[in-house]
Description:
By secondary structure, the chain is an alpha+beta fold. The protein is 20% helix and 32% strand. The protein contains six helices and 14 strands.
Amino acid sequence: MIQNENRLFKFPKFSELIIHEDENLIVINKPPFIASLDEREGGEVNILRLAKKYHPDAQVCHRLDKETSGILLIAKNPETYRTISIAFEKRKVNKIYHAIIGGTHTFQDLLVDLPILNQGNKNVSIDRANGKPAETIFNSIKYYKNYTLVECKPITGRMHQIRIHLATQHAAIVGDDMYRGKPVYLSQIKKRGYTLSKDEEEQPIMKRFALHSKHVEFELNGVKMAFEAPYPKDFATLLKLLDKFDS
């Protein structure tokens, strides 16, 4: 069990997360609420530790924010780790994320090109003078009355890049309180017939921000590879409820 702010989260077996495995590489669909690597606090379960139990030489090739779900690449040997790390550095890995944002936004190949400054302690800001170059392309996939499902293609790989770039467009990811994204409550979208007992406090439909690493494409040892990760339960549930009550 993993304790997080809102509830106990039962973690599945590492082997159940795997969507592809060969002699060099493990590709997993990372669940939310678990860090990719060791965080400073120490004792917490993370993907790297679980991967090393499964395969002693495992190395996580990149990272996803703790709350972000989706595709994560894990190398089984140092050569593969090096090759994939260099591919990420040289921007030869095509990544597609899906996000649910507040408001109706029509993005058609919208390029957000705003430099990001990492201030340390997981804080970043847009800083045109001192920030590092950061580019993301956004396309709207599906429109609701009050929300939009968006495809996000980060060209660079800065911390919180998608989250802060969306926030600059007044299109923060739902549930992303760091960037003023508001959570979605069933009572907001289901106007009729929603009741809550007197002592009950309503919980948001998703207890995290709605960001999922959907698709990754790259080349490894001359072979083109592409992987897709289905939405986790909470993300799929939110979309289903938006389909039902907000479309």
